[in-house]
Amino acid sequence: MKRIGRMGLMAVLGFFSLALAAVPRDPSELIKTTAEQVRARVAVERDTLRTDRERLHQLVDDLILPHFDFAQMSQRVLGKHWRGANSTQRERFVDEFRKLLIRTYALALLEYADREVRYFPVRAEPGAQMVTVKTEIDRPGGAAMPISYRLHVTDDAWKVSDITVDGVSLVNTYQASFRSEVRKGGIDGLIDSLAAKNATKPPPQ
Fold first, then answer.
1. Which residues pair with 151 in a beta bridge?
2. What pLDDT shows up at residue 20?
3. How far apart, in whole angstroms, are the C-alpha atoms of residue 97 and residue 111?
4. List of residues 6+ apart from 111 with CB closer than 8 A
5. Residue 68's beta-bridge partner residues?
6. What is the rounded distance in angstroms from the CA atom of residue 165 to the CA atom of residue 172?
7. Does 18 reside within a domain?
8. What is the domain extent for residue 189?
9. How many separate domains does the chain show?
10. Is position 205 within any domain?
11. What is the DSSP string of the chain?
12. Residue 9 and residue 106: Cα distance in Å, rounded?
């Protein structure tokens, strides 16, 4: 889980800005444009967000997570366990998985909002329904960190289905971690474990 946390912290540097209201011709350019809008909001509210964790989490929930395809991500993360889960278990898992990502991104939002991000043009055929947006994040004293976002069109909007940080897939990493927990306590044990983590008080920002 620590590895997942580090990946989430890096991924938010480039993705916290994503606000996709309709299918754009160039998702990379849209991400870049909206990034400045979110940076401006964080700059204005930084002091409040540092002390008001609920407001910070709401900011993440409003600006980032609506653009994840949680249904697809949940199915990929759980694999065969998703197919074996009932509707209640699926709903509970998606809810706790979403809360987990809110907490993960919130930890990084204030700390890394001012880092330099480079966006590369999307190379895809006209009308493509799936694209990869490649970015780089500056790291003080080290090489830039490559981060790629896999997006596909669903319900007339681009949705993120995976994030790859320095060659490591976030979905695959969660899959390995969750598979281990399911082996120990079943799908309900995994969901209860996520719920317990989400209920703990986050460290001070």
1. 131, 160
2. 42
3. 23
4. 9, 205
5. 160
6. 11
7. yes
8. 2-199
9. 1
10. no
11. -HHHHHHHHHHHHHHTT---SS--S-HHHHHHHHHHHHHHHHHHHHHHHHH-HHHHHHHHHHHTGGGB-HHHHHHHHHTHHHHHS-HHHHHHHHHHHHHHHHHHHHHHHHHHTTS-EEE------TT-SEEEEEEEEEETTEEEEEEEEEEEEETTEEEEEEEEETTEEHHHHHHHHHHHHHHHHHHHHHHHHHHHHHHSPPPP-
12. 9
C-alpha to C-alpha distance for 164 and 141, rounded to whole angstroms? 22
Answer for the pair 69, 152: CB distance below 8 angstroms, yes or no: yes
Band the pLDDT of 187: cuts 50, 70, 90.
very high
pLDDT tens figures, 91-116: 999 999 999 988 887 777 777 677 88
How many Å apart are CA 42 and CA 112, to the nearest integer? 11
Give per-residue pLDDT as tens, 37-84: 667 778 888 889 888 888 888 887 887 777 788 889 999 999 999 999
In a domain, 102, yes or no: yes
CATH of residue 131: 3.10.450.710
